What we know:
The chain is mainly beta. Helix content is about 10%, strand content about 30%. The protein is elongated.
Amino acid sequence: xxxxxxxxxxxxxxxxxxxxxxxxxxxxxxxxxxxxxxxxxxxxxxxxxxxxxxxxxxxxxxxxxxxxxxxxxxxxxxxxxxxxxxxxxxxxxxxxxxxxxxxxxxxxxxxxxxxxxxxxxxxxxxxxxxxxxxxxxxxxxxxxxxxxxxxxxxx
Length: 155
């Protein structure tokens, strides 16, 4: 795999360090080639998203979901089978190995709900931009209505 060196771009930009770090991370294959469990990411509305993960064989108590500083971590660990119920498998095609999957969330994206249904874990996300960050319309007034502010010393 070809590695792209972004260092010349780092020198010519200010404030885009996080963007280039994310690009560099996306360009690299996942560190351990992890493809389990498979997942989908879909847009369900203008500011709504859903991550769906195939976690067949896992119960609610086997899964943990944690959102911390723009990183969503989904982990699953199956409880060890008791020795009393030791089963002999002729073929074992349903994976139940432990996993941890991390998703980088954009700013102002929050986890709203999670649901486990028919072996699929649905995680609903919503982007909530604060009022101070939303674009707003500024009225333009003519010069006749403008009020002049007098300059006064602070002391």
